[in-house]
Every structure is written in C-alpha cells, then in structure tokens.
Design goal:
By secondary structure, this protein is an alpha/beta fold. The chain has twelve helices and eight strands.
Length: 287
C-alpha cells in the first residue's frame, strides 16, 4: 500500500528551494481534479480566479466573486488534504482597503481551510500584504502579467521585456519579500529576469511562463490537460487532450442512444428472484 503523504507546509517549500528541488504547482477548481492532483503528489494547488474562465465561461477574471472562490477552495481542500492549497484573492476583494483585504483573506482560512492566499501586485499592494501577514496568514505575491489589471497593461502581455520594465519587476519582488510575503509568483516574465529574481530572493519564487530557473512551476490545469478551448498561452505545455477524449465519448454515447444500443442488459436492474412471475400478475390487473 502507498504510504500517506505528510501535509506539505511552508517550511517544506523553503526546504525545497534550499536543496534545489523544483516545486510542482497546478490550479484546481473542483473536488475530482484536486483528488487527481493529490493522488499525483502535487506539492501545491492554486484555486485560481482563472476559474472565471475555466469553470464559468467569463471572458476574464474580473467578475469572479469571493463567494465563488470560497466554494471552490472548500471543494479542493476536501479533496487534497496534504497539498499546500492557496486561495486566490479575486478582483475587488483586496483593492479597496487593508481592512477589506484582511477580512477576505481571513475568509479563505476560516471557511475553506486553505494554507495561504495569493494577491496580485507589487509595491502598490505592500500595505495590503503587510496587513494580511499581521493577521497571521501566509501570503504569496504575484507580479509580471497580472490578469486582474490587464486593462492597465494593455492586454494579457508579457512583462519585464525592457530594462525599465525589468527594473520595476525587481523592485516589486524586493518589496514583496521585504514586506514578509513567503512566496512569490512571476507570470509571463523573461527567463533572464526570473533567474535574477529567484537568485536574489530567499523565499521560493514560482513561475508561470517565467522560464525554467525559478524554484517551481505553475500551470493552469484546464490548459495543461487540454480542456480549455478559447486560447492557449505560449507558456503552456499540453500533457493531454481531454476535450477530444470527452467529446468522442459523448459522440459514442449519442450514437448508442440513437441506435438503441445503450443501455444493454448489463446496465439494467432486473426484478428480484420470484418477483417477475408476480409482476406478470400485477400487469394483468391493469389489462
Ligand atoms: O488565477 C490563476 O489561475 C492565476 C494564474 C494565472 C497565475 O492567478
């Protein structure tokens, strides 16, 4: 029998950085997917606000609410008791005030039992990060391409591709570590810049589209298993094509239903022994 894994903690993630073991990180939004991630021994799971696109069919992450994030985080936590689970603060759950940020971050822990929260932004959200940390909550920063402010960035564009923009990213990364955040995610950043930041910071620095030299990698599960159809970012590697598998299964099912080939005898509940004769008598009563 496989030995049950011990719960992954923030100290384990620090130790992995220290010994150069890459950290595996994937999003999940529902119970079955999180069960697969847990069974695969994923180190970390992000209940990302990308659930807006991947689960609800929104065009972006902006409409996602705290209540949606909590419900999905609860399901993921139930399915993945040992992975390090991070709840993603949705748009307007932390932008308005430090107090609002703390209350919403607290909901993730109290109602969903996550291990940490993630929020987007660098220098401009430092007071939010400090306030959440002061409440005793583990914080993961997120800089580079920050989808919630993609309007200001002029779309979903890679960041840090000029020296000036790379300097801003480095300043953001240093400020986030200095504030006390325990993890940092870089999204869509050149590998040279990501390598420098990863070497400079003592906290684990994770990549989604930031090259191979970070302390670990994150992908969106719906991209990685070939489920999300609208677009595929450059940094995605598809490990499966479940959209094709599921669509083909559904087409087969339709064919069987139309042809009367489903259900077969093995899919039927027959009457208990002896009851079938009595049933014939029952039918007669209605004739
Ligand atoms: O919501 C999410 O999945 C994210 C990733 C894009 C980093 O924040």
């Amino acid at each position: 029998m496989m030995e049950k894994r011990r719960k992954v903690t923030i100290l384990d993630l620090y130790a992995m950085k220290e010994r150069g073991e890459k950290i595996s990180w994937l999003t999940a939004y529902d119970y079955p997917t999180a069960q697969f991630a847990e069974a695969a021994s994923m180190d970390m799971i992000l209940v990302g606000d990308s659930l807006g696109m991947c689960v609800y069919g929104y065009e972006g992450t902006v409409p996602v609410t705290m209540d949606q994030c909590i419900v999905h985080s609860e399901a993921v936590r139930r399915a993945a008791p040992t992975a390090f689970v991070i709840g993603d603060m949705p748009f307007m759950s932390y932008q308005a005030s430090d107090e609002g940020a703390v209350l919403n971050a607290g909901r993730f822990l109290k109602e969903a039992g996550v291990d940490a929260i993630k929020l987007e932004g660098g220098v401009r959200v430092i007071s939010r990060i400090r306030a959440i940390l002061d409440a005793g909550i583990v914080v993961c920063g997120h800089i580079g391409l920050t989808p919630q402010s993609s309007g200001q960035l002029g779309g979903h564009k890679a960041q840090g591709r000029t020296v000036e923009s790379a300097r801003l990213l480095i300043e953001d990364a240093l400020a986030i570590e200095e504030a006390g955040a325990q993890l940092l995610l870089l999204e869509a950043v050149p590998p040279e810049v990501a390598r420098f930041i990863t070497g400079k910071l003592s906290i684990p620095v994770l990549s989604i589209g930031a090259g191979p030299d970070c302390d670990g990698q994150l992908l969106i599960v719906s991209d990685m298993i070939g489920q999300f159809q609208a677009f595929t970012p450059k940094f995605v590697k598809k490990y499966a094509n479940v959209a094709e598998v599921i669509t083909n299964a559904m087409k087969e099912y339709i064919k069987d239903v139309k042809a009367g080939a489903f259900p077969a005898d093995e899919h039927c509940y027959h009457m208990l022994k002896g009851e079938d004769e009595k049933f014939k008598d029952l039918i007669k009563e209605y004739e």
